[in-house]
Amino acid sequence: MTEKEYRSSIEAILFSAGDSMELSRLAQALELPEESVETQLGILMDEYEKGERGITIIKLNNSYQMVSVKQFAPQVRKAMDLRRNIPLSQAAMEVLAVIAYNQPVTKSFVEQVRGVDCSGVIGSLTTKDLIEEKGRLELPGRPLLYGTTENFLRCFSISSLDELPPIPKDEDRGDRGQQLSIFDDEKKDGEEENSDTVTGTVEEIVAEAVEG
């Protein structure tokens, strides 16, 4: 096949899949090296962007998905009679930020950071497919570990966690920069408890991620 035919094949596969598809599966289907498929995907994504189309292709970690362009969401929602999602509460945004920047983490770690029970919020974020179980920590009781999902990347319009805005440096935050460790069974003698991590800048972090 020609390069144009390969791009058309990729387009057909992603459209038919509906959901995201890993680069390795695309390469296997096209019988091409992953590097070649990635190159063709880049060209295809540029064509969509320059053509001012109503659909585009996004990258989510090492997967790709065909989606509608964000600016046409109101029309799509109206045509499909979709209800607008209820915005996340401040508590949910704080928990999500703590998990996103420190993952994988346990529920107890999140609760240490925020100082309140987070069971309900974590359950809600799991239901919304923004976080998911990532295994268990090899400590007594083997607590569950949580991390963000591919849907988290999609909702925040980023390709990977590397695109999240950086957390302010410690010198810019005074003594608010120390972070609790989930591997510390006990505080060292004389060490003061400090449960602050990213919660002090959650609003800025979340807003910047959404705008980006």
Please describe what this structure looks like:
The chain is built from 9 helices and 6 strands; from the N terminus they run H-E-H-H-E-E-H-H-E-H-H-E-E-H-H. The protein folds into 2 domains: 3-79, Winged helix-like DNA-binding domain superfamily/Winged helix DNA-binding domain (Arc Repressor Mutant, subunit A, Orthogonal Bundle); 90-211, Winged helix-like DNA-binding domain superfamily/Winged helix DNA-binding domain (Arc Repressor Mutant, subunit A), CATH 1.10.10.10. The chain has helices spanning 3-17, 23-30, 34-50, 73-79, 90-102, 107-114, 119-127, 150-155, 202-211, and strands at 21-22, 55-60, 63-68, 105-106, 131-136, 144-148. It has a 3-stranded antiparallel beta sheet with strand order 1-3-2. 19% of the residues are buried. With 212 residues, the chain is of the alpha+beta class. Strand 5 and strand 6 (144-148) form a beta hairpin. Helices cover 44% and strands 13% of the residues.
Give descriptors for this structure:
globular; 2 domains; Arc Repressor Mutant, subunit A; 6 strands; 3-stranded antiparallel sheet; 212 residues; alpha+beta
Order of helices and strands: HEHHEEHHEHHEEHH
**Uncertain segments:** 173-212
Structural class: alpha+beta
Overall pLDDT level: 79
Please state how the strands of the largest beta sheet are arranged side by side. 1-3-2
Give the number of helices. 9
Task: Identify the overall geometry.
Answer: globular
Q: Which topology of the largest domain does CATH recognise?
A: Arc Repressor Mutant, subunit A
